[in-house]
Amino acid sequence: MFRGSVMKTVEMFGGGRRVRYPNLGSSFTVLDMDETVTCFCRKARRKDKEPSSLCPDDPKLYLEEAVLERKLPDIDLRVLVDLPPGLDYNEWLASHTIAFFDHINLVYGTISEFCTMSGCPDMTGPGFRTYLWFDEKGKKTRVAAPQYIDYVMTFTQKTISDESIFPTKYANEYPSSFESIVRKILRLLFHVLAHLYHCHFREVVLLNLHQHLNCVFAHLTLFNDRFELIEARETEILSDLVVALKILETEPAQQQQPTAAVNSEVVATPPPPPPPPLVAEQTSLLIASTHTQPPHGHEVIAQIGH
């Protein structure tokens, strides 16, 4: 692309690197994404030999500015999570729960070949978090990540396909325990997201799917912030990502004050000054003429001109 001799310098930043080309202008900078990801996740390549090499002390790639993107940046996700007037609350929960399941299952499916029994012997998340599976009898079991996620997806698919829990026919109603069931599903799906960010974000970036993953995470975070379905002790492990993506930021209240001031000025606008004496005299003459003479336009105009 460039002819002649091209000089370049490499600058390290937080484990990654930027490549600068001084003789092409100071502003010409290329972010070496693959090298950045590789530097942050070198230990991930040795999973098979060292299953426990990934630890929360490793740099968090998902917090790097270069990957803090999400699809649909121009759409306000808050509008998508607010319950529309007149819509049933349980119906709103059901539609979003199914959407979260579909999207998270889809993203995980793209990197599932990298999530192996030997590479992920435990279901882990950021902050030394390890998830244990509870069976139908309440017995907790330590299982590998792919097995845990398979349990999550199987349980969720079976639940949302149950007509007695997620009704699709008009005559059927939602059970009284529906919200608690949704809480359990969303909690388990959040565990999958936590594992994706903690152990497989490198693969997600290399597949150029990090924007989609961030968008799903932002959607779930806003939905949970609106309806408080997942406990804070579960979501706190990714609170730094919430801050980095600026998901819960709102506009300061003072920014709304100028609009109110403008509106108050419009309301308080004084009435226009009275017309000059000549106009007032002509106007009164016009009114008098309309009461004393037939409504002929040329006669009225003649009197005003006079």
Automatic annotation (TrEMBL):
<feature type="binding site">
    <location>
        <position position="195"/>
    </location>
    <ligand>
        <name>Zn(2+)</name>
    </ligand>
</feature>
<keyword id="KW-0862">Zinc</keyword>
<feature type="binding site">
    <location>
        <position position="115"/>
    </location>
    <ligand>
        <name>Zn(2+)</name>
    </ligand>
</feature>
<protein>
    <recommendedName>
        <fullName>MOB kinase activator-like 2</fullName>
    </recommendedName>
</protein>
<feature type="binding site">
    <location>
        <position position="120"/>
    </location>
    <ligand>
        <name>Zn(2+)</name>
    </ligand>
</feature>
<dbReference type="InterPro" id="IPR036703">
    <property type="entry name" value="MOB_kinase_act_sf"/>
</dbReference>
<dbReference type="Pfam" id="PF03637">
    <property type="entry name" value="Mob1_phocein"/>
</dbReference>
<keyword id="KW-0479">Metal-binding</keyword>
<feature type="binding site">
    <location>
        <position position="200"/>
    </location>
    <ligand>
        <name>Zn(2+)</name>
    </ligand>
</feature>
<dbReference type="InterPro" id="IPR005301">
    <property type="entry name" value="MOB_kinase_act_fam"/>
</dbReference>
